[in-house]
Design goal:
It is built from no helices and 11 strands. By secondary structure, the protein is mostly beta strands. Strand 5 and strand 6 form a beta hairpin.
């Protein structure tokens, strides 16, 4: 069982930056691929970014490519999402998630954290 806790959300003006963190309870954090997802009001949850267990491979949704950067520090059991050039449409609850190395789905989810971008 992996417990995930997001932090770093809040209110920011359009064009600004935020960095989200996701702290994992599991000492074998490096045994999981990790991802960020978000859900805006009235919309379905959508994929934002993913990173493999070592940090050597990343993947992004087209909507955030070039603006967001996913990274991880396995020594600190922490996942990050650096968000730059934020847009109004980035407003959502952001979730981190963990996927076992042989799993096909994300098995563990954080509680989510609000990011609000204002004009």
């Amino acid at each position: 069982q992996v417990s995930l806790v997001e932090s770093g959300g809040g209110l920011v003006q359009a064009g600004g930056s935020l960095r989200l963190s996701c702290a994992a309870s599991e000492r074998t954090f490096s045994s999981y691929h990790m991802g960020w997802f978000r859900q805006a009001p009235g919309k379905e949850r959508e994929f934002v970014a993913a990173i493999n267990w070592s940090g050597g491979s990343t993947n992004y949704a087209d909507s955030v490519k070039g603006r967001f950067t996913i990274s991880r520090d396995n020594a600190k059991n922490t996942l990050y999402l650096q968000m730059n050039s934020l847009k109004l449409e980035d407003t959502a609850v952001y979730y981190c998630a963990a996927q076992g190395l042989i799993a096909s789905v994300y098995d563990y989810w954080g509680q989510g954290i609000q990011v609000t971008v204002s004009s």
